[in-house]
Amino acid sequence: MAHDLAPLLTDGLILPVSSATSRKQVLKMLSEALGNKLNLDSRTILDAVIERENLGSTGVGEGVAIPHARNVELTAPIGAFVRLENSVDFDAIDGQPCDLIFMLLAPTSSGADHLRALAQVSRAFRNSNLRKTLRSAETADELRLLLCPNGLLQNAS
């Protein structure tokens, strides 16, 4: 399927629906989850993502944000996704708050891979039907089935 993000999420995470109420809370939550999963320093991840956010918003419109950064300890791009109960401000290009957040981390040395991964995520979230069904999903398992329909993703925890 065009929106199968399993290659980025196989070792990554899909978090349960969250009640985070600010961009910083969302970024911290995703950074901590990825840091724990990958055995990396979550503060280093958060600092890199915030540094990238300061260059320009990663809110791409239609309620979607794709915060991203590079990390020297990674060997391949990896992602984490969370759907928020209530949208938060990500300074999106369309001025709308975001509730579908996909954090992408890539190796420092992977310029082309990073761009390909960003393009893959962006293409997936341009699909209005995917956005709609993600917003109606109630569990991490439902989100997993939508984002990884080929079933390559293990349970997040």
Detail the topology: elements first, then pairings:
Blueprint: H1 6-9, E1 13-14, H2 23-38, H3 42-55, E2 59-61, E3 64-65, E4 68-71, E5 78-88, E6 98-107, H4 111-126, H5 128-136, H6 140-147
Parallel strand pairs: 1-5, 3-6, 4-6
Antiparallel strand pairs: 2-3, 5-6
Low-confidence stretches: 153-157
CATH topology: Mannitol-specific EII, Chain A
Give the percentage of residues in beta strands.
15-25%
| CATH homologous superfamily label | Mannitol-specific EII, Chain A
- Tally of individual domains: 1
Description:
With 157 residues, the protein is an alpha/beta fold. Helices cover 43% and strands 20% of the residues. It has six helices and six strands; from the N terminus they run H-E-H-H-E-E-E-E-E-H-H-H. The protein has helices spanning 6-9, 23-38, 42-55, 111-126, 128-136, 140-147; strands at residues 13-14, 59-61, 64-65, 68-71, 78-88, 98-107. Strands 1, 2, 3, 4, 5 and 6 form a six-stranded mixed beta sheet that branches. A hairpin with a 2-residue loop joins strand 2 and strand 3.
Write a brief caption for the model:
43% of the residues lie in helices and 20% in strands.
Annotation keywords:
157 residues, alpha/beta, disordered C terminus
